[in-house]
Amino acid sequence: SDVCSSDLGVLDGLTSMGGSFRAHEALGVATLALAQGTNATKEMIVFTDSQRSGWRLDEPDAWDRLDKAWDGLPTQPKLLVRNFGEPNALVNVALRSFATSRTVVGTDRDVTLRAEVINTGVNVVTPGAVTFLVDQKKVGTAAVGLLMPGQSTWVELRHRFGKVGPHVVSASVEATDDLAVDNRWEMVMNVQEQLPVLLIDGNPSGSFFDRASGYTALALAPSAAVLQGKTAGERYLMDPRVVPAAQVKSEDLEQARVIVLADVPRLPERLAALIAARVQSGAGLIVIAGPRTEPGFYNPWSSLDGPILPMELGEEKIDVKGVSPAPATFVHESMSLFQKRSDLADAVVKRWRAVGETREHGVLAAAFGNGDAFLATRLYGSGRVMLSTCAFDARAGNFPARQSFLPFIHEWVSWAAGGGMNWNVASLWSPSVALDQAGGGLTGYYERSNEKNSKVLLQRTDATVDFDWTNQSPGKNVPRDQYIVTWKAILVPPVTGDYEFEAEVNESLRMNVGDGSVWQADAEDHELGRVALEAGKGVPVELRYEQEWGAAYVRLYWKAPGGKRELIPRMAWIPEVEEREPMRVVDPRGLPREATILAGRRGRELKIEGSAMPGIYQVHADELLEELSGVKKGEVVPVAVLRDPEESVFTSMNEDDKALMASHVDLLWPQSTADVLAVLQGKGFGREIARWLALAAAAFFVLECVLARWVSKSRRAGEEVRVEFGDDTIWRGGLR
Predict the structure, then answer these.
(1) DSSP structure string for 410-464
(2) In 323-332, which positions are buried (b, 16+ CB within 10 angstroms) versus exposed (e)?
(3) Helix (H/G/I), strand (E/B), else coil: 129
């Protein structure tokens, strides 16, 4: 068979990568190696202990994709699964998961660290204490107690972080068992400085507590400064800012992680589009539907991911006796804190909105005792949307007077914010961290227009082309007049058809499209042009804005097929990314690697080259990583590749699993190494083979050997075999 032309010495150079077995990735790499060989017979060997995890046996579609890859081979391959047997009496204690009491953590108050300990063995055990560490320093311990087979328990420790930024948090349990690697769990917690929350008030008249956003703002930060319309200050993690609906501007939206529409009747079309784009790009949106809220505006409000709200709003209901939230309906994760211990059930709500059926992707998070919806949520693009059918003020009832109101608001805002940057990733082929969930945008180059050899004064990523600088400078080091802005990006249309482009501009805007089209717009002529675009197929676009004197503004619109005129949203752009030196990385074994920053519609990501293995990776930050994460250039950023907890629970393959595999490939289960060699030599099972031949065959067919060969050829092009793993990862020949 054509697998690997090596010898026993290959084994000496192999090191364990750790992590879970990923059968489909391994078989995909083996398929590429087989495609390079000339022998007609094709065989793959997997050595296993019959552990079910890692084979994706609950995903028949994944096996269908391997079928297509094998169809590209000259002959159907044989898959030999050599089972070395199951453990007889597994003794194992594992840390199955690690969590915190809040998704958004700051330095303003304690957070609870929670570790789950499970007995995955067959005997009763009493493990030692769990030790918690922060940045490798012990911060406390917690006792576990006796565990029956299959039993798990949570242990907790309260801790307050003293410094913002990413911290390595770990827990380890004292145990003498058969699998030491799962006695420890490591993760990275991103401690945030502040969480900016913009509250747009639809009822701003009267005293602070008569306003639609008053109680909500004060619950986020109980500070006198908030009562005076100022920011809360550095003492508080939540940083609410209240703006009357009639006075909100586009720049108010830029820094807000969460936007709250507190009983806002309706929004101007431009602001509504900007908010939708911000949510699509990763911001949170909370809609508090009070008596002034107009269903005629909210129900048709939509963008690239469809309707914004998770439910359609109806008319207001009024009941002088009122209704109360029903804890039994608190099914959403943001409401888990209030399922058993809270006084929300004592709240009386006398005015609330009727709603229609839950829309696609919408979730009913909580209901009133009469069955009417109380809270609903949905994921929208990279962001999150939450809806309350009643106001959070005295007009609706006594809800804000409950003791649970303050933590309720914190939980809601925290969920909407999404927890910030996540330095923890699953054990995939190449560890990848989402840096900028806002995603998209255009790379802008700002320079003077009155100099012959002008240099770039400012380079940044702009969300979209929507600026009104009036008589102010557009950015640091840029003059107020006589400047040029050049934007470069890839435009990715959502649907196929003709797109019309238009600009509002003073002085002029030139647009170059990838097909060779060049258009010009100025203060008198707003139309740019029309071009046919294909859904998902990006085209390069270059924009050149020139300003001489006076008021400066520029906005770029499009009209998609069947759509309306709107600002081109951030998610439609992929910014230009210049070539940069890769960042230095040290992996969990202390070996060097490299990391680069890539850009796409869903944002920029930090990609660490090479196979993932569980543990902490130390990334040495460069200027761009500093810009995106706040970690200073030269400092070390920890990235955690999490261990798969399923590896700690031994579940053997059953007959149905074997039947599924056999339906997709010529499957054999040899019972000995001699049987393996007999198959490879075209003989039947059971013939005696010399020991040295058995060892040589093992060296030939270990999958890590296949991987080593494939990596050495990873830059070859032109292979015909294509392998799709079902997680947007595609292998074709020697290229990924």
Answers:
(1) HHHHHHHHTTS---EE-S-SS-EEEEETT---EEEEEEESS-TT---SEEEEESS
(2) bbbbbebbeb
(3) coil
Please provide the average confidence, as pLDDT, over all residues in the chain: 85
List, for residues 618-675, the tens digit of each pLDDT value: 999 998 888 778 888 999 999 999 988 888 888 888 899 999 999 888 889 888 888 8
Q: Which residues contact 451 (CB under 8 A, 6 or more apart)?
A: none
> 439: which residues sit within 8 A by CB, 6+ positions away?
281, 282, 382, 570, 571, 600, 601, 602, 603, 604
- The whole-number average pLDDT for the span 180-194 is 91
Q: Is the whole-model pTM more than 0.85?
A: no
727 SS3 class: coil
d(CA 175, CA 154): 16
Helix 703-712 to helix 23-36 angle (10° resolution) is 60
pLDDT value at residue 20: 72
594 dihedral zone (left: phi>0; alpha: psi -120 to 50; beta): beta
Say if residues 258 and 198 touch (Cβ distance below 8 Å). Answer: yes
Residue 17 binned pLDDT confidence (cut-offs 50, 70, 90): low
pLDDT band at 702 (very low <50, low <70, confident <90, very high): very low
Residue type, 241: R
Locate the DSSP E strands across 283-419.
284-288, 302-303, 306-307, 311-323, 349-358, 362-367, 373-380, 383-388
d(CA 140, CA 157): 7
The sign of the dihedral angle between the CA atoms of 118, 122, 125, 131 is: negative
Q: Name, of 91-105, 310-324, 512-526, the range with top average pLDDT.
A: 310-324
Q: Name every residue whose Cβ is closer than 8 Å to that of residue 440 and which is 6 or more positions away in sequence.
A: 281, 463, 569, 570, 571, 572, 573, 574, 575, 601, 602, 603
DSSP 141-153: EE----B-TT-EE
CB atoms within 10 A of CB 247: 10
Polymer length in residues for the chain = 736
